[in-house]
Amino acid sequence: MNGKFIKFQWIPSHVDIDGNERADLLAKRGTKSHMEEIAIPLDSIKKNAYAEKIVLNYNRYLSYKSRGKSWEKIANDWKEFSHIPRKEAVSNFGLRTKYDCLTEHL
């Protein structure tokens, strides 16, 4: 990686929580303690950036294609349905867009 490294560090924020001062003190101590360095391969970083770019382009395309359609408002909510069975997702989509196979038979 050309002698470069990235250091990630997470320190939580405790706002309006009992013991806030104690948490702040512990967080300060945490910044002074030894942090383990984890090498992330450049290929892994590139692959992640490429995947993010694909998702971004897909979302832009989906927004463009859904313009003016009955499902425009939920076009980018597809992640909501990605963890449920397809049959359930299709039914949910039909109910949210007020479009389902029943309207063809009425």
From TrEMBL:
UniProt xrefs under Gene3D superfamilies: Ribonuclease H-like superfamily/Ribonuclease H
User: Could you tell me which residue ranges the RNase H type-1 domain spans?
Assistant: 1-32
UniProt xrefs under InterPro entries:
RNaseH-like_sf, RNaseH_domain, RNaseH_sf
The GO terms this record gives for MF are: nucleic acid binding; RNA-DNA hybrid ribonuclease activity
Q: What is this protein called?
A: Uncharacterized protein LOC103523915
